[in-house]
Amino acid sequence: RVQLVESGGGAVQAGGSLRLSCAAFGYTSSGHCLGWFRQAPGKEREGVVFISADGGTNYADSVKGRFTISQDNAKNTVYLQMNSLKPEDTAMYYCAAAYPPYGRMWCRQSEFNYWGQGTQVTVSS
Asked: How confident is the model at residue 40 (pLDDT cuts 50, 70, 90)?
């Protein structure tokens, strides 16, 4: 019913920028949360940034001030603008979606059940 497709990953030098896109199919832009996660080889998956069902955002401290999430409701697409990239940003990046429980507009990380296939971001020093 829900399909998420990421794109925009690639290789970039430290200090460079990339913009990731996540197109959602069969999924409304309202009443759900969206998020970006990343996972480097041998490391645990970590949340990068989340956007709540009412548009609020929450960024991981490691990317705050460098990454920006945005969405185009007409295209049902969410973006992740990544600036001032560092080698430690190297990871597979995943787009995910979740439905919050009744009475909540935000979502816990454990509630993200719909995932894209991932797009690789590699930052060289």
From this structure: very high
